[in-house]
User: Which sequence fits this backbone?
């Protein structure tokens, strides 16, 4: 497996483990199910799959685990996958908040939904061994009006030689034609583009050999190192938390010159992102005027864009640095 070229399908002879790092709403759980079903029912492999959620809300981190084994090998392990053959990262912002490449093997594959190059991803993650595959799954899904999961499945299918493209595509067809028949063809196109539109970098075997062996990380706090008195050092406090990894690729753009300060956006925003301050209007009356958006809390749902009666808000595909450059901070009085 794992070269720049498409290769022949091979037989699976040993346990093969895939970990998907994603956030709620991008379809990682469904992708894991479709993949496992295709492997078990379509290819006759042994397989298992489950997902691990946090608060089960859109935007929260989700990890999906898929194991495959040859038909004569039972899978008895149902624990989280620590040393995967493949890690598929559905949302690049996750690199900010968690170590997505933990345990990835020296001959493994890191797939990332990104517009970056493999060299940029290596620099960002520190993963120098194995293979890095970049695919602009979000761009593909926007153009095809689908979700990124089928594009990411296409890329997975391209790099894992024992998977059969036609079997996975039959699984996609079967999944969508029951509930959303109108989405079958667009999802199959999304899969094909995920299969084709990839950028690959394969490290040399010397680099792979130099990778440190895996060590299971010790808990950061133990009975010796925990703070006295049960002090919570990292509170779940919305003032301090960086929630940017929960955004799904979009941000609202605010055009102050078109704003009539009606607050329709604020009524629908689930995360209180809109920043207001009192100002005097042309008649000398004091009102709250919208100043901008605090992107620290924005999850990119774009409900505000739908609610805005003027064109003061528009949905943008998020580019690196946009939120920081256009941030309007809430002024919290924490005294
Ligand atoms: S996209 Fe709009 S409504 Fe959604 S969280 Fe961000 S500011 Fe709030
Ligand atoms: S809904 Fe639109 S016009 Fe109304 S306050 Fe929000 S941005 Fe301004």
Assistant:
């Amino acid at each position: 497996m794992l070269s720049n070229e498409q290769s022949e399908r091979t037989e699976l002879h040993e346990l093969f483990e895939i970990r998907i790092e994603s956030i709620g709403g991008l379809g990682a759980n469904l992708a894991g199910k479709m993949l496992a079903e295709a492997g078990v029912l379509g290819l006759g492999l042994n397989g298992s799959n489950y997902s691990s959620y946090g608060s089960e809300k859109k935007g929260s981190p989700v990890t999906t685990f898929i194991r495959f084994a040859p038909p004569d090998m039972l899978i008895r392990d149902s624990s989280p996958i620590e040393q995967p053959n493949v890690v598929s990262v559905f949302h690049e912002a996750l690199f900010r908040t968690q170590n997505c490449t933990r345990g990835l093997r020296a001959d493994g594959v890191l797939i990332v939904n990104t517009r970056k190059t493999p060299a940029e991803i290596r620099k960002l993650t520190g993963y120098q061994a194995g293979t890095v595959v970049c695919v602009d799954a979000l761009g593909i899904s926007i153009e095809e009006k689908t979700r990124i999961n089928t594009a990411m499945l296409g890329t997975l299918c391209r790099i894992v030689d024992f998977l059969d493209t036609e079997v996975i595509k039959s699984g996609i067809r079967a999944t969508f034609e029951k509930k959303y028949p109108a989405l079958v063809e667009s999802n199959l196109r999304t899969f094909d583009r995920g299969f084709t539109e990839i950028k690959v970098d394969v490290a040399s075997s010397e680099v792979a050999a130099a990778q440190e062996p895996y060590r299971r990380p010790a808990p950061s706090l133990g009975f010796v190192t925990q703070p006295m008195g049960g002090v919570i050092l990292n509170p779940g406090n919305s003032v301090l938390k960086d929630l940017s990894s929960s955004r799904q690729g979009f941000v609202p753009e605010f055009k102050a010159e078109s704003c009539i300060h009606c607050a329709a956006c604020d009524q629908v925003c689930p995360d209180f992102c809109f920043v207001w301050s009192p100002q005097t209007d042309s008649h000398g009356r004091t009102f709250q005027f919208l100043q901008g958006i605090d992107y620290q809390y924005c999850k990119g749902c774009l409900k505000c864009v739908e609610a805005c009666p003027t064109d003061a808000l528009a949905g943008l595909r998020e580019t690196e640095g946009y939120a920081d450059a256009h941030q309007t901070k809430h002024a919290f009085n924490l005294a």
